[in-house]
């Protein structure tokens, strides 16, 4: 015979311990509320004191008000805007990184192509390139590499002409424009 006795009709919960825990949490919250209230009152008093000091300084003349500027006339405003545009242009030119552009060109330039001149156009973010290629395949390779590169968006061949090379033979002189380079 197996005897099992369970005299509890519900789960056991110590109400005394629960009330003690609730009391502790309430006491902790009251303590936090007191600290926050003290900080608020202290900051409010300090702000009132600083405002009083500012009023005293203004009445003594210790603080000078910033002078108000008269309104600009139309011609002065236009002159100021043109000076700002000029300064922005200089900043744009200064932010141009030649080493980055030359590194990108080195990655797409075939060995049989030489560059003679690079002229950037800062306003449009493009540059013109003048150079020489040993043959038509080298020039075509340069154009293909420039077009396939993610660094350059549009490549336009402006001119090409066969020239006599001073060391003998002939080369193809070319000029092209690359847009969206920077």
Shape: flat
Q: What is the CATH topology descriptor of the largest domain?
A: Gyrase A, domain 2
What is the typical, i.e. mean, pLDDT? Answer: 85
Number of domains: 2
Q: Supply the number of helical segments.
A: 4
**CATH class wording of the largest domain:** Alpha Beta
Structural class per helix/strand content?
Answer: alpha+beta
The main pleated sheet reads as:
4 strands, antiparallel
Name the CATH superfamily classification of the largest domain.
General secretion pathway protein M, EpsM
Give the fraction of residues assigned to helices. 40-55%
Please tell me how large the radius of gyration is: 40 Å
Side by side, the strands of the main sheet go 1-2-4-3
- List the secondary-structure elements in sequence, H or E: HHHEEHEE
First and last CA, distance: 94 Å
The assigned CATH architecture of the largest domain is: 2-Layer Sandwich
Number of strands: 4
- The portion of residues forming beta strands comes to 15-25%
Low-confidence stretches: none
